[in-house]
Structure formats: C-alpha cells, structure tokens
Design a protein that fits this description.
The complex is a heterodimer. In chain A, the strands form three sheets. In chain A, strands 2, 3, 4, 5, 6, 7, 8 and 14 form an eight-stranded mixed beta sheet that branches. A five-stranded mixed beta sheet of chain A has the order 11-13-12-15-16, sandwiched between helices. Chain A has 14 helices and 16 strands. By secondary structure, chain A is α/β, with parallel strands linked by helices. In chain B, α1 packs across α6, α3 crosses α4 and α4 packs across α5. Chain B is 36% helix and 18% strand. Chains A and B meet through α2, β3, α3, α5 and β10 of A and β2, α2, α4 and α11 of B. β10 of chain A pairs parallel with β2 of chain B. The structure holds thiamine diphosphate and iron/sulfur cluster (SF4). The site of iron/sulfur cluster has 12 residues of chain B, from α7.
C-alpha cells in the first residue's frame, strides 16, 4: 500500500493517529480548539465499526471512555482547558484502577474560559497535578502536524503497555495549523494491543502483584472481577490494610518510574557543542528551532532540546546538559510551569524563562534575543 | 426391588442459592443493621436469577455511597466508579458491548444530585440498562446530610432547622427525560420488588426503578423514628400505594402517597440499536 499524502490540520492528524492505533471508542463534548477531533471521529469511527458518542459533559465523556476501555476497546476523549479541568477526577480513577485511555488536551488560553481561540501551554502542570493524590502521569507533546499523528499512536501504545491514562498535550496553534503530512501504511508505526489474558478465570487477578503490570481482561470475557477507585488489593476489592495501600500506591508510581527511559523521547539539535540550550515543546519549539538556526548562522553555539514526553519529566537529560552549558532558556506560553521544573533539575546552568500569556505565540526573535543575552 | 413402591413426586421448594451470585469471601457487608440496601439486593439477585442470564454477561456499575457498595458483593463484572458518574461509565460499557446486560446501582444522592445530569441524559438516550435508585432520602455514607429526595421539613445533619428544599419525584423525572420503563418499589414489598426488578431487567431500553428504602442510622435517628421496622411501615408501607389499587381508591386516600409498580412503559428506539441501524449502516454504505 502506498503512503498517502494529505494536507491536514493538527486535530485531523490526531484523528488519523487514533484510527491508526486502532481506537474504537470515542466519547467527548465539544470545546474549542479540540472539536475537530470529535467531528472527524464521528464520521470515521462508524466506518470501521467503532463507537462515537457525544456525552452530556466532559466528566461523562471520560467516564464513558473508561467504560469503553474496560469493555475492551481502545478509547479516546479529547478536550481543551475547561473540559480538561472537569475530567480530572475520572483521570485519577483511570490511574488507580489502571485503565488504559488516551486524553487529548488542545491547550487554549486560561484560566477559566480564558481565551478559547488563543493558544497556550498553561496546562502542563495541570496534566501532572490536576487530579488529587499521588499518581503517575504520562504526557506526550508533539510539535508538528505529522507528529500529532505519530504521538497519538505512541500515546495509545503507552496507555496499553502501562495500563494507564496517557495525555496528548498540544497547543491551539498546531491543533489548527495545516501541514502536508504522510499517512503511514499499516505496519509502518508500531501498534501495541492490549495483552490477552489466558489464565484460568479463578486464577485471574486484575492487580496481580506477581506482574509489574498485570494484564487487563475486558468485561464480558469470562473473567469476572471488580474495579474500584478505592485503594484495593490484587483482586481489585477495597482494602483498609495500610501495608496494601502503601504497596499499591507505590506500585502504580513505580510502573512508570521504572520505565522512564523507554517513555522519554527527546529531540536534540546541536547539543554536542552547545553553550546555550533552548528547552521547549509544542509550537514554541518551532520558533525555538528557527532561533537556534539563526544563532548558529551568527556563530553562536546554541542548541535545542525538545521533549516529546513532558511527563515523566525529562530530568536526566536536563541535569546532564546543565552541567556543561551556560544557560538553559525555557520559552513557554505560560508564566513559568516548565521553567520551575528545569530549575529543579539544573545543576549549574542558569535557567531563563520566556513567558507569554497574551494569546500570541513566542516569536523566534524573542528567543534569539535571549540566546544572545546568555551566550 | 420390583416390590418397591413407585416414588411419590413431591414438589420440593429449593431454597434460593444466594451464594451463586454473591462473593461470600467479600462479606460481611458494610451496611448497618436495619438498612434497606440488603433487602433490595436480595430482590435483585432473585430477579436476575429469573432472567437466566449468565453471570459472565452481567455488568453491575455503581457510583459512591452505601448503596453503591453493592457491586463489591456480587459475582458479576463489577465496577464501583465515582460519585454520581455510574450512568456515564455504564453508558460506555453498554455502548462498547451492547450484548452485555448492564445494571446500575445508585443512591438517590448519587443518581439525582451529583449525577442528575447523567441520569436525565441516560434516560433521554434510552440506552438499554436497568438503573436501581436506592431512595433513602439521605446521604448515608457521609453521615446523614439531606438529599434531593428528603421531604420538606425533615431533619438531617445539614438541615437542623428542617429541610426547605422540595424533593424530586424520581419517577416523574425519569419519565420526562425519556426512560421507556419507569417503576417504583420499596424494600417493604419484597416480592413485588423482585417482580418489578425482573420486569425492568427484561425491558429493552432505559429502565429505572425507584426503590424506597430506609436508612435507620441517619434518616431514622434524626427524624425520631423508633426502629427500622417502624420506618418501613410508615415510609414504605403506609406511604405508598400500588398503581393497580390506586385506581380503585378515592382521591383523598391517595393524598401524599407515592405510587408503586410499573408506572410507565413504552416501546421506544434504543440507543445502541439506533447507532447500529442508522449510524453504522449509513457510514458503511457504499454510496
Ligand atoms: C465528588 C464527590 N463528592 C462527594 C463525595 C462524598 N460522598 C460519598 S457518598 C455521598 C452521598 C451518598 O449518598 P447516596 O448516593 O444517597 O447513597 P447512600 O449512601 O445513601 O446509599 C457523598 C456526598 C464523594 N465521594 N465524591
Ligand atoms: S448509613 Fe444508612 S444507608 Fe448507609 S448502611 Fe447505614 S443504614 Fe444503610
């Protein structure tokens, strides 16, 4: 099968990615600037026998998507800031009950209703800490329309592999930007499906401690078990045993923590000899790339570190880098969410934030200025 | 041998095997002595047994509350979700697997306060599931605050001066929202309740059963009822009338009483069927 070239908007690429990954269930509630994902899937999912439903709100949407996943279908919900806030309680449920799920958040200006049609990157911390309690989070952060497709596929893979919700986080700019992309042919990108349960029904435990991540049997497959958002034992039933509670809380963190190396994904440009490095994601990384290239043309040793996984935070890469560069510049369309994390990880280098919350993108000129100031 | 008298065929009534449906190692349950929730569970299990459905094909979903602890005790595919969200989770499961029987167990607070929006929309879609609302007029699990079905003037830990909010009529709301089967039962009328739940389970589409049951620990204590049985007699027996008898009674005898039995039943297109017949069909047709 020949690859297909298409001129697509970021949100449309997300639709392609979801379908490529084998998504068969979508539940959502309309919200700018993510709605095109729902619109696209409402047309495409039924064509492949998949389920599309528009729920009554964002809480119901993620709840239904979790239900779809428990019933065995790869499930997706997409939203933006206000809707992402509403989804937080259910997100935590999916974390503790260990239900695979992909949540797309196309970031718009906030807080509150904020600036619906303007971009932001102000949900980075919400993605990590939005739901209560200690919990693991994986969030992927594409910068290009093509990458929205491939990162959506990766998000589904990570969700299935680690039995956890995965967030796809990108800003309105790339959500609505159109770029020519190539639709991958089957087999071109890795697609991970849910592990099948094969043991005897009475030997099945959905949270079996013998596994780092026990396989999840779909409801209605002959394995009758219990799912709860309460702290639970290996059989899924609630427990008040402090040892069990501790073990389970730590295990769900560990299953991500122990696999950070494989979840992390960074793009490194000119880092070998760089003295000033820009660390940024999403559409801001596009401005940064332009600025770094310009700086290089002018003989400045600038580099770019672009995380495609923002959670778990790429602390190792930053710590290492910080030992040998003068400054790390962190442009972001918020008032310093990533900057704070970079400061935490940086051992020696100066950390310089560039922040914008006026609904306008951070320009290459702004970043170039900062590079020159800190070279 | 040939001299043995032919055996007399005696009809032996087998005791109902509750253990078939319970998870005995998850008992004892958390419910207080005198709580109605256990009585409802009994009727529910008997009704399920009558349907003959295999346990593997039954999904029970609940929210949060004393009543919502039910799924933990029964041997089906069970999901204890978040406060108010049971019907939204259940919608996802049913829509993904329409071949499964989905039963939602929910408290009046769970279904009608925090989950009110999901409740009316599940009714509106007429998605095929059976929702049992355990109406005890209080928030049992959090210690007896007033709920959307608490009567005006009743006392709760958050209405010490008497409740000023009018209660919902769950059945009217379900009907108005589009549920195609709406019924009411009580924990007092156990045999009738079993029959009503069975009818609800056999109905295709959204079936709602509002079940009046008592919380002696909070509602009872705060409203000066003497015992759980007195609560049942007053709130469930004296305060309700079966719809079939209601026709024969003069209006003054019906004053202030709630109707029991199947209050509304119509054939209406079911959500998952509609999706198959309209959406999938159109999306996959060649033209
Ligand atoms: C989001 C959220 N808000 C509040 C609570 C606290 N809470 C737990 S159960 C409950 C009320 C339960 O009442 P009801 O649904 O009527 O069930 P009952 O316990 O009476 O059977 C509340 C308010 C919660 N768990 N989650
Ligand atoms: S508090 Fe009330 S509703 Fe909860 S178990 Fe006790 S009697 Fe039942």
């Amino acid at each position: 099968m020949a690859q297909k070239k298409k001129l697509l908007q970021g949100n449309e690429a997300c639709v392609e990615g979801a379908l490529y990954a084998g998504c068969k269930f979508y539940a959502g509630y309309p919200i700018t600037p993510s709605t095109e994902i729902a619109e696209g899937l409402s047309v495409r999912l039924p064509k492949v026998g998949g389920k599309f439903i528009q729920m009554e709100d964002e809480i119901a949407s993620i709840a239904a998507a979790i239900g779809g996943s428990v019933a065995g279908l790869k499930s997706l919900t997409a939203t933006s800031g206000p809707g992402f806030s509403l989804k937080q309680e259910c997100l935590g449920y999916a974390c503790i009950a260990e239900i695979p799920l992909v949540i797309v958040n196309v970031m718009r200006g906030g807080p509150s209703t904020g600036y619906p049609t303007g971009p932001s990157q102000a949900d980075i911390m919400q993605a990590k800490w939005g739901t209560h309690g200690d919990h693991p989070v994986i969030a992927v952060t594409p910068s290009y329309v093509q990458e929205i497709l491939s990162e959506t596929v990766r998000a589904f893979n990570l969700a299935e592999k680690f039995r956890t919700p995965v967030i796809v986080l990108y800003d309105e700019i790339i959500g609505h930007m159109r770029e020519p992309i190539t639709i991958p042919v089957p087999g071109e990108l890795e697609v991970i499906d849910r592990e099948k349960v094969t043991c005897e029904a009475d030997e099945y435990f959905p949270y079996d401690e013998r596994y780092e991540i026990a396989p999840l049997a779909p409801f209605g497959s002959g394995y009758r078990f219990h799912v709860t958002g309460l702290n639970h034992k290996k059989d899924g039933f609630p427990t008040n045993d402090s040892k069990q509670i501790d073990a389970n809380n730590r295990r769900i963190m560990r299953k991500i923590e122990n696999h950070k190396e494989e979840i992390w994904k960074n793009e490194e440009t000119f880092l070998d000899d760089a003295e000033v490095v820009v660390f940024t994601l999403g559409s801001t990384a596009r401005s940064a790339r332009f600025a770094v290239n310009k700086a290089r043309e002018e003989g400045i040793k600038a580099g770019l570190l672009r995380p495609l996984t923002i959670w778990p935070f790429p602390d190792k890469a930053i710590t290492e880098l910080s030992k040998r560069v003068k400054a790390i510049i962190v442009p972001e369309m918020n008032l310093g969410q990533m900057t704070l994390e970079v400061e935490r990880c940086s051992k020696k280098a100066d950390v310089v934030g560039i922040h914008r919350v006026d609904g306008e993108p951070i320009t290459p000129a702004q970043i170039l200025d900062a590079i020159k100031k800190h070279k | 041998m040939s001299t043995a008298a032919p055996e007399k065929k005696e009809k032996v009534v087998q005791p109902f095997d509750y253990d078939k449906y319970l998870r005995p190692n998850k008992l004892p349950h958390i419910w207080c002595p005198g709580c109605g929730h256990g009585i409802v569970l009994k009727a529910l299990l008997r009704a399920i047994d009558k349907t003959g459905l295999p346990k593997d094909n039954i999904v029970m979903v609940s929210g949060i509350g004393c009543s919502s602890r039910t799924p933990g005790y029964v041997d089906f595919n069970t999901m204890h979700t978040l406060h108010g969200r049971a019907m939204a989770f259940a919608t996802g499961i049913k829509f993904a697997r329409p071949d499964l029987k989905v039963i939602v167990v929910t408290g009046d607070g769970d279904a009608l306060a925090i989950g009110g929006n999901h409740f009316i929309h599940a009714c509106r879609r007429n998605i095929d599931m059976t929702v049992l609302v355990y109406t005890n007029a209080t928030y049992g699990m959090t210690g007896g605050q007033y709920s959307p079905t608490s009567p005006i003037g009743s006392t709760a830990t958050t209405s010490r001066y008497g409740n000023i909010e009018p209660p919902f009529d769950t059945c009217e709301m379900a009907k108005a929202s589009g549920a195609s089967f709406v019924a009411r039962g009580t924990a007092y009328h156990t045999i009738e309740l079993e029959r009503t739940i069975y009818d609800a389970l056999m109905h295709k589409g959204m079936s709602v059963v509002d079940i009046i049951d008592a919380c002696p620990t909070y509602f009872g204590r705060m409203n000066k009822y003497k015992s759980a049985t007195q609560m049942m007699e007053i709130l469930e027996k004296d305060n309700t009338v079966n719809i079939k008898q209601a026709d024969k009674l003069p209006p003054e005898k019906l004053q202030g009483k709630m109707l029991r039995g199947v209050l509304h039943k119509v054939d209406r297109p079911e959500y998952c069927d509609q999706y198959e017949e309209h959406v999938i069909k159109k999306a996959t047709s060649k033209e």
